[in-house]
Design brief:
Helices cover 16% and strands 29% of the residues. It is an alpha+beta fold and 299 residues long. The strands form three sheets. Strands 1, 2, 3, 4, 5, 6, 7, 10, 11, 13 and 16 form an eleven-stranded mixed β-sheet that branches. The chain has a five-stranded mixed β-sheet with strand order 8-18-17-14-15, with no helix packed on it. The protein binds magnesium ion. Magnesium ion binds next to loops.
Length: 299
């Protein structure tokens, strides 16, 4: 099932909906008597029977659902417009990206990655599907894209054994970990260069965990102006979801609603010689099999 946040009025009042199975209609959750303040509220509180009801409802004809609206006629927002905390990110979590990243920094990569690399990304507001990625002329020289599978936790996780990690996952979405390479290199740390306003496009919706076998093995790609730049599979993650959730939760409580972005495959702009950084007017499309496509334009 695909859950989304959308708006139908100019004041951007948020509504929650479930996508119809043919992906043409949105059925408001309130049509089924399900009321939550926002997606984070739903994630931490949705019951099993509500989940079953919505899965069933998504298969209905739009005529049978009061308040059904056509997907084309609404504005989608990021499924979680305002995360409750910084996003937990994985760095260099696909082998081929480790190689291109080392090459860009004129460093040697010895093919070993014994420990996962974790960092965080400040996000005051996630950018919506079709939203404009700011390019910061005069401040950012090398704007880059990173298509990533993001996982969202449904309950607090502490000391989770690897084999139980999947029980903590609410669902998955697509995240573009937009990065200013010059800023991240200049400041010797990824945090600032990845945390500028508008650098976290997310969406177009959340696919619930029950939609995929675990761990999900999904094609992941990124196109810029139609040119295929990244093309991999989440099966190629160096550190998978069980490892990440289990390891982090040994030392820190991962709260319900936590978003973990699992890292990007090779083919980012800095990986090319010469680099292919983003410029104004570029259309960036991040796609993951079974989820959809997150499309944004550079301002
Ligand atoms: Mg990244």
């Amino acid at each position: 099932m695909k859950l989304l946040t959308y708006t139908v009025d100019k004041r951007n009042k948020q509504k929650l909906g479930v996508l119809s199975q043919n992906e043409e209609w949105i059925y408001p959750l309130t049509s089924f008597g399900i009321e939550y303040k926002n997606m984070l509220d739903l994630i931490s509180s949705m019951t099993e029977s509500e989940s079953q009801l919505l899965t069933y409802a998504s298969r209905k004809d739009p005529d049978a659902v009061p308040g059904a609206v056509c997907l084309k006629e609404v504005k989608l927002l990021a499924p979680i417009p305002v995360p409750s905390q910084d996003i937990v990110c994985l760095g260099i979590n696909y082998m081929a990206h480790a190689e291109e990243s080392a090459r860009f920094k004129n460093e040697k990569f010895n093919g070993e990655r014994p420990y996962a690399v974790y960092f965080s990304k400040r996000v005051n507001q996630c950018l919506e599907p079709e939203g404009m990625i700011p390019s910061y002329p005069g401040f950012v020289e090398s704007l880059d894209y990173e298509a990533e599978l993001a996982v969202i936790l449904k309950k607090d996780a502490k000391n989770v054994p690897a084999e139980q990690a999947k029980d903590y996952i609410f669902g998955y979405t697509i995240l573009n970990d937009v990065s200013a390479r010059d800023i991240q290199n200049r400041h010797k740390q990824w945090y600032f260069g990845k945390s500028l306003d508008g650098f976290c496009p997310m969406g177009p919706w959340i696919v619930t965990a029950d939609s995929f076998s675990f761990p999900p093995k999904l094609g992941i790609s990124c196109r810029v102006n139609g040119e295929l730049r990244q093309n991999s599979n989440t099966a190629d993650l160096i550190f998978g979801l069980e490892h990440i959730i289990s390891e982090l939760s040994q030392g820190m409580t991962l709260k319900a609603g936590t978003i973990i972005s699992t890292g990007t495959p090779s083919g980012v702009g800095m990986g090319f010689t010469p680099p292919k950084f983003l410029k104004s007017g570029d259309i960036v499309e991040c796609s993951i099999e079974g989820i959809g496509t997150l499309r944004n334009t550079v301002q």
